[in-house]
Amino acid sequence: MNYLTQRLATFPLILLGVSVLVFVSIRLIPGDAITAMLGTEAGLLTPDQRASLAAYFGIDQPIYLQYGRWLVGLFSGDLGISVTYGRPVLAVILERFPLTLELALLSMVIALCVGIPAGVLAATRNEGPADLGIRVLAMLGQSTPSFVVGLVIIFVLSVVFGAVPPMGIFTPIYVNPLVNLSQLIFPAITLGFAFAASVTRISRSAMLDVLSDDYVRTARSKGASARSVIWRHAFPNALIPVVTLSGIEFGYLLGGAVIVEQIFALPGIGRLVLDAISQRDYALVEGCVLFIALNFLIVNLLVDLAYAALDPRIRLGGR
Predict the structure, then answer these.
(1) Consecutive sets of 10 residues in the chain, 319 residues long: mean pLDDT of each?
(2) In a domain, 221, yes or no
(3) In angstroms, rounded to a whole number, what is the distance separating the alpha carbons of residues 137 and 132?
(4) Side-chain half-sphere CA neighbours of 64 within 13 A
(5) What CATH number did the domain enclosing 225 receive?
(6) Is 93 in contact with 291 (CB distance < 8 Å)?
(7) CB 89 within 8 A of CB 171
């Protein structure tokens, strides 16, 4: 509990630093909301019209006053109004987040279900043909960009099978689970391909280290079966590196897989941030980045707590 309290106490400080960084960074990009909204027609505005619009968007004041006003609203739960959608930023984020969350979970399930068995198999067949084949596939998965995998999937489905995966729409899972799965399975495979390759390499390396420990040799000398030695004695102690990698990757996925969401035209958080930056929607960019940072902090905290559950020798916040 002491460790949990200490970690939770650092959240506001980290989020404050993130808010300052994103608030300044988005305003360093040339242009403003007026130019992004009107395009070339912004040059036709009179000074009075531009001043009125600047006051409406809240960009007529010095940057420190803009930040102070936004920070005061943040403490009251108000992330501002999106100039693109004309709605509260938090409402827009929560509308897009379920897709990103489901896509991240589905990608992680695919990666773990493929990567962990492959890594364990490679470790138990060290330097054998199976190990060599799995290592080659893992290297291929890590070195292939996700946009290439996504384009290959779309090409194969459309040219070979004559079917184009559904894109540009999202049906919540509680509305129609089958349609929802058909919309997200191929983007999830695209994201899970590289993720599974990383899990395979990490789990193989961790298993090789554990299988050479003394307690594993002791279990074998006592007559324990090979399956028991691998899955009961060795595997739980090899999970910590896998959990660490999964937590980091899952945090990134919750931030939105921008390229994959763009390729499959999915209305998720990543695509929302990309559109908000192009439209100079300051409030929406700031709210999205802060929301992503909070998710990342929560995921990392859960990963750290999982360490103690997986390995009793780890004591969080101990003396």
Answers:
(1) 81 88 81 64 67 70 79 80 83 89 91 91 86 90 86 84 73 83 87 90 88 78 78 80 86 79 85 84 86 88 80 59
(2) yes
(3) 9
(4) 0
(5) 1.10.3720.10
(6) yes
(7) no
Distance between CA 140 and CA 121 in Å, rounded?
18
Sign of the CA dihedral running 195, 243, 289, 65: negative
Q: Are 4 and 305 in contact, with CB atoms under 8 Å apart?
A: yes
DSSP track, 21-42: HHHHHHHHSSS-HHHHHHGGGG
* DSSP category for residue 87: S
Residue 88 three-state SS = strand
Question: The domain containing residue 63 runs over which residues?
Answer: 2-89
Domain boundary among 38, 66, 89: 89
CA distance 149 to 117: 22
pTM: 0.81
Rounded CA-CA distance 310/16 in Å is: 32
Question: Which tokens go with 136?
Answer: 């080659």
Q: Which residues contact 201 (CB under 8 A, 6 or more apart)?
A: 119, 135, 138, 142
Q: What distance in Å separates the CA atoms of residue 44 and residue 135, rounded to the nearest whole number? A: 60
